[in-house]
Amino acid sequence: MKQLIQTVIITLAVIYSTQTAGAQSVTSVRVKLNEDKKALLIPIGFTQNLKWDLPLTIKGGNGSTISWKSSNPSYVDNNGKLLKRAPRAGKAVDVILTANLTLGKETLTKSFKIRIAKEDPPFDAYLFTYFEGTGPKELQEQLRYGISADAINWSALNNNQPIISSELISATGGIRDPHLLRGENINDFFLVATDMFTVKNGWEHNPGIVMMRSSDLITWKHNIIDLEKSYPKKFPNVKWVWAPQTIYDPSVNKYMVYFTVRLKNDPALDFYCAYANKDFTAFEEEPKLMFKAKYGAIDGDIIYKDGLYHFFYKGNTKDENGKEFKNGIQQATAKTLQGPWIEDFKYLDAYAEKHISVEGSGIFKLNNSSDYVLMYDMYRDHRYEFQRSSDLFLFAPPQSFIKNFNPRHGTVINITAKEAQRLGQKWPGLPKELATRQK
Q: Distance (Å, rounded) from C-alpha 54 to C-alpha 306?
């Protein structure tokens, strides 16, 4: 009898222990799954004004598997691919993306509301911002506009004279390498430029960059960033701060400014970046290293396509003794602006093998086309040429711009007929085909 009682007690203890362990196991799985649910996010810039494919997580930090379902797959499919934009007229379009998280036998769901960006207005023209490569040297490093209906034939506005004096917007009295970006708000424009006046100060030093903002491309507010004065510990010996550019980063809903820095005691040419404040008057924080090309690089321009950021720049190749023997336009790619950037050492332009100098790479998409234009400044020959691509990897043979000005390192954006005509009313030089085009 005593032995029987002991057997029953042991059996009950084993059952209790097994049940307790099972309960603890289920509880542990639920805790882990809840942690993965809490950590699951879609960056705010993607949810508010979607223009890109969604970066959807498919594996949680605790090992959960995550599948997604779209409430309207005609706009965004279950893999997060954006298939079309919302109509320009009418109500806003929202899509619900629901995540199903599974770990073991446990399942949880989490939903996100995604606002689809409206279609862009019909772009009918192109605006080229540049500084001039000919004429009186004291007037060359000033901001100018060129305009085109087809991205091949270009006409200078304002008789190829500056549209704003560099003395009014820069610390040095000169600007180079202007980069113009249309913001997420269709009527916001951001312009950055190298704060440098080589005619007066030479090439040994420039302090920083110029930051500008406009709502009409005519009237501009400006600010100056002196990298050495603003960040003396990080940049105590700045030699060059070259070719700044701006790009919107949807992962943080901010505008990133990036540029090449060279220090006086270091020959490296590295890209640094910082997020602009909301007013686009300064940086939120100290610039940090963004991309370090193997042999150094300048004149970067980034564009997003099909889930990948393409970073075009002037790169070079050096021998085992560190002597450069080739240079031209190269690219690196990354899935996010934070990198890591994968450097491709292939030259994209048609002139690297011919040892003909090119720099100032710029990339833009053609209106009503799937093609992109990679343009570059052939500064020794006073030529500007371009090569077309549909995938940003393979580029067609070069073509030349036809123009009545000699641009140096600039950028191109797409504009509407209304915007072109507004510029034409302010400054002479608008082509007839744009002057008469319906707005």
A: 10
Q: Rounded distance, CA 438 to CA 270, Å?
A: 45
What φ, ψ does residue 87 adopt, rounded to 5°?
-60, 145
DSSP 184-196: SSTT-EEEEEEE-
Write out pLDDT tens, residues 414-439: 999 999 999 999 999 999 999 888 76
* Main-chain phi, psi angles of 136, to 5 degrees: -55, 125
Q: pLDDT at residue 12 above 80?
A: no
Model pLDDT for residues 329-388, shown as the tens digit of each residue: 999 999 999 999 999 999 999 999 998 999 999 999 999 999 999 999 999 988 999 999
Domain 125-435 has CATH 3.50.50.60: no
Closest CA to 407 of 125, 145, 139: 145
* Contact residues for 276 (Cβ-Cβ < 8 A; gap 6+): 190, 211, 246, 254, 255, 256, 257, 282, 283, 284
Indicate whether 18 pLDDT > 80: no
> What confidence tens digit (pLDDT) does each residue in 153-210 have?
999 999 999 999 999 999 999 999 999 999 999 999 999 999 999 999 999 999 999 9
What is the distance between the alpha carbons of residues 34 and 106, in angstroms, rounded to a whole number?
10
Report which of 151, 148, 50, 62 is spatially closest to residue 102, judged by C-alpha positions. Answer: 62
Give me the mean pLDDT over the 249-275 stretch: 96
* Cβ-proximal residues to 343 (8 Å cutoff; 6+ apart), any chain: 293, 294, 330, 332
Tokens of 146: 């060129």
131, 409 contact by CB (below 8 A) = yes
Q: Are 430 and 423 in contact (CB under 8 A)?
A: yes
pLDDT at 272: 98
pLDDT score for 1 = 55
Closest CA to 141 of 150, 151, 132: 132
Question: Rounded to whole angstroms, how far apart are CA atoms 115 and 5?
Answer: 68
Residue extent(s) of CATH 2.115.10.20 domains in the chain: 125-435
Residues in the chain: 439
pLDDT of residue 21: 46
Residue closest to 75 by CA, chosen among 57, 55, 45, 97: 97
Six token digits for residue 221: 């507010």
User: Do residues 259 and 246 lie in contact, with contact meaning Cβ atoms separated by under 8 Å?
Assistant: no
Q: Are 168 and 134 in contact (CB under 8 A)?
A: no
In angstroms, the CA 323 to CA 200 distance is 30
Helix (H) or strand (E) holding 37: helix 2-39
Q: Is 322 exposed, middle or buried (0-12, 13-18, 19+ CB in 10 A)?
A: exposed
